[in-house]
From TrEMBL:
Domain of life assignment: Bacteria
Keyword annotations of the record: Membrane, Transmembrane, Transmembrane helix
Species for this entry: Sphingomonas alba
Annotated TM spans: 20-36, 56-89
Protein name: LPXTG cell wall anchor domain-containing protein
């Protein structure tokens, strides 16, 4: 007689909320990083248009852009690791159903 084995592993309601929070967090952080890149490039371009202190303004805008981008990347990685662990720990164990 053939034996049919089927794996069942559906998430609980809390697990689904955690999973979608993880996905939305990553989408939000990608959007913030892209917006930050656009804003930083505009700030650097506008800083160099000032005549008297163009070099100092450009250097300051570049340093500020690096700090902002580095902070966003750090927050993204820290949040992704923490939420990823929650996603990993809230999954249900696989249940194997056998039918004869």
């Amino acid at each position: 007689m053939p034996v049919v084995r089927r794996e069942v592993s559906d998430r609980t309601a809390f697990g689904k909320v955690v999973k979608w929070t993880f996905i939305l967090f990553n989408i939000l952080m990608l959007g913030l990083l892209l917006l930050s890149c656009k804003t930083n490039s505009d700030a650097i371009a506008n800083a160099s248009s000032q005549a008297e202190y163009a070099d100092a303004a450009t250097a300051g805008a570049t340093i500020g852009a690096g700090l902002v981008s580095g902070t966003l990347i750090f927050l993204w990685l820290a949040g992704a690791v923490i939420l990823g662990l929650f996603v990993l720990f809230t999954r249900r164990k696989k249940i194997i159903e056998t039918e004869e």
